[in-house]
Amino acid sequence: MTEQKSTNNTVSLWTLVSLIIGSTVGAGIFALPQNAASVAAPGAMLIGWAIAGIGMLSIAFVFQVLALRKPHLDSGVYSYVRAGLGDFVGFASAWGYWLGSVIAQVGYATLFFSTLGHYIPFFSTENRWTSGIAVSILTWVIFFMLTRGIQQAALMNVVTTVAKILPILAFIILVAFLGFSWDKFTLDIWGRNGGSGSVMDQIKAFMLFTVWTFIGVEGASVYSKQSRTRRDVGRATVIGFFSVLALLVTVTTLSFGVMTQEELAGLSDNSLAAVLEHVVGPWGGALVSLGLMFSVLGAYVSWQMLCAEPILLMGIDGLLPARFGRVNRAGAPVAAQLVSTIVIQICVVVFFMNEATYSFMVQLATIMYMLPYVFSALYLVLLATRGRGMTHPHAGTRFDDSGPVVSASDNRRHLLIGAVALVYSLWLFYAADPRYLLLGCLLVVPGLIPYVWTRIKSGDRIFNTFEWVVVALVILGSCYAIYGLTSGTLSFA
């Protein structure tokens, strides 16, 4: 495949790199020391990062390759899934990605107010309902802002990006020179005495946290049409990815050299601040906490705006009622934003009533995010092996299998990328705690109601044979989830 010049070549290589770093480095890194130590010792953690590095890079390249091979698919990440595997699987992926964003919103808010509660007891973890009410108010205030077409100003994006990167860099420098102890890092490097299970069990448990920290790494592919050259997209993906990976691995490695695994596992959600406070005193914790609150607040506003995007696109594409695809005079998708805000509010009530932890919300959201990842990887494998996806009801229109001519060598490379990403994605589902898979199935089921109603109203076939199998598996999993919740064997905690 030859390099192509863009007709609107305004986005430079380093702008693409900054987009990846800005969208990927979020709240996850601030909770990473505690998250990692709660399931893995230092040795298993490093192996987990190596696996995650290969797997997540392959997923990032899946979206880059699909953007090159299918430039006419412009309805976001889920459009590849819909083109390759049909309407319902595409819908389920978009629905899952949307719910993952909704759950992530509640996780962001929980982390924000728990950090604030460290300094203002009114919002401490003992006063969960105070934080719950504050989250609800914040959510609805942002909703009314967004309905008026108000988006984040460029200045706010700059401030929040700088505010989260500087404390992380300060953490790395101060801990590396003042607090890291190699003896402490290697004291129980494989977790033999920590009760974390075998090394493989530790790696499996650690993997979902790694995915959470990489959400957004496919960002450069979104701007492939505006890049100066297509090659810049690949370069930016590699540079941005390894920059983020270096930050994540450095933060977790240094943390294990400051405190033991048991001590790290007992920290609060904002564990990055606690580790730096352990090294330099209270001012270090305050510095990181301030950066975290700026970062999370900026992410909360932007992600609430983005939460509406999958609903808007599915309304436009006819997978949900058309009203969800409409915008008001200010250009805001009010119906999509309203339903997203209502579901965020429901999640706040459910999670706070059941005392769900930040860790629980992260892992459940990650499972939902994985749906478009695994199916997009499968689509690339199908393209590379048979030249097309599965039979699609709209073949011949916008979801045909036309695209640029691909050389045999490029096709082999694409097959390798897709296969690695698919194996990695499936292994993540295998490694996940089964309760997150069951709850994920349960969360997909409500989406069947508007989907089926829309299909009946439009006169389209509801499900094909392959989709019936998928629906049956989803319903079976949701039945197990309902039984677990009612019997007490499954919980939100």
Automatic annotation (TrEMBL):
Q: Name one GO molecular function term.
A: transmembrane transporter activity
Primary localization? membrane
Q: Mark the transmembrane ranges.
A: 12-32, 44-67, 88-109, 129-146, 158-182, 202-224, 236-260, 280-303, 334-354, 360-382, 414-430, 436-453, 465-483
The record's Gene Ontology cellular component field reads: plasma membrane
Q: Where in the cell is it found?
A: Cell membrane
- Give membrane topology per the record: Multi-pass membrane protein
UniProt keyword list: Amino-acid transport, Cell membrane, Membrane, Transmembrane, Transmembrane helix, Transport
The coiled-coil regions, if any, are none
One Pfam family here: AA_permease_2
Per the UniProt entry, what are the Gene Ontology biological process annotations, in alphabetical order?
amino acid transport
Stated family: Belongs to the amino acid-polyamine-organocation (APC) superfamily. Basic amino acid/polyamine antiporter (APA) (TC 2.A.3.2) family.
Protein name per UniProt: Transporter, basic amino acid/polyamine antiporter (APA) family
Q: Which organism is it from?
A: Corynebacterium epidermidicanis
Gene that produces this protein:
lysI
